[in-house]
Amino acid sequence: MKNIGFLSFGHWTPSSQSQARSAADVLLQSIELAVEAERIGMDGAYFRVHHFARQLASPFPLLAAVGARTRKIEIGTAVIDMRYENPHYMAEDAGAADLIAGSRLQLGISRGSPEQVIEGWRHFGYRLNEGEDDAGLGRRHAEAFLGLLEGKGFAQPNPRPMFPNPPGLLRLEPFSAGLRERIWWGSATNATAVWAAKHGMNLQSSTLKFDESGEPLHVQQAAQIRAYRKAWAEAGHTRVPRVSVSRSIFALMDGRDRAYFGSDEEQRDQIGLIDANTRAVFGRSYAAEPDVLIEQLRRDEAIAEADTLLLTIPNQLGVAYNVHVMEAILAHVAPALGWR
Prior knowledge:
Low-confidence stretches: none
Distance between the termini: 5 Å
Strand content: 15-25%
Shape: globular
Structural class: alpha/beta
Oligomer: single chain
């Protein structure tokens, strides 16, 4: 069995070719897509966060709205860029959204991806400490956030407060017990996967990873997952961690599917530079008739290692089409692979 969710980047564009032509469109459609995903039996609704772009950005209003409209589906992010986050304010937002959702949040956080602007986090008021790079900034904010989710008091109460206080130091409210165990780290390297394990976070590995061996993405990811689980065991954590991988997977069921995804242009991994010094491997897309797709996916080592699969979806094609994409995987692919 696997948990199967969708991952939306929440793109919008005023083009007449897009079903999501405004920020309002993509936000409202994201809520409806989560409702429909729950109805057809998907396990998770996940959203990407990008700043300074025509995509989903501030995640917590959306997560809270999805939580209010659904009852059982997991609601998550993949990922929130921690370089941009105030850990204290984020802990309050996350606690509130998780309580609204009935403790269903699964928050993926990370250092984040290459940005739309130069050092965009500076516009949010953040600066590097001496000797720190932006990845260190993201990890510093993440560690502060994790500490706040422990729920321990740290703030000295006013001796003459406006409202009565409980005894002792005060914590941030609202506090949602259990959310700390539902934080994931989006890792692009083996080293940060090991770091995530030591800090007791679940692991998210996407369709992009730093190229550390020259092997196909799925082979490198499988090695990354094994390194993570080894570090988890060595850290002595008592619970079983969760691991997700993201994939673009399309079962070609009709003419629309073949028109959109029938080309073989992206049927192999791509190697490229995501900045001046970082070589990365970008994962292939899978698009084929169900019987062919099943055999291709059997050979994906990282999917086999993970307990959760996030299907990246073309959100600009609209809610109805994306429901069709997910239903095709659930009905015609997942059972043969033992995912259902």
